[in-house]
Amino acid sequence: MTTEEKRFQEKINAIQDTMFVIGGKWKIPIILSIYSGNKRFNDISNSIPKITNRVLSKELKHLEENFLITRSIVSDYPVRIEYTVTSYGLGLDEIAKPLERWGKKHKLKIKGE
């Protein structure tokens, strides 16, 4: 494998890793919901139409495992669990803006505008 091919493969692997962590239908809406101030499970669930509790639970665990959100236990009565976006998770803003711009351009292109 040439040096150029190795660099290309590394680039592909890095993009695939990124897509594994933030890809899918629900991860970005969940992160945005938490970022917007929805800290508790039911608040997050209510802010995202059509997401099931099972899927939300699974995705929250995945996002936590990848250090994009944290899960905290608040020892009130009753005990509450709250989620927050980590400083590492806030770094997604670097890639979110270009993806948003590209998505808007792509939508116009598809519509023929």
Automatic annotation (TrEMBL):
Pfam family, one: HxlR
Keywords from the UniProt entry: DNA-binding, Transcription, Transcription regulation
GO terms of molecular function: DNA binding
Limits of the HTH hxlR-type domain: 13-111
Record's protein name: Putative transcriptional regulator
Organism field: Chryseobacterium populi
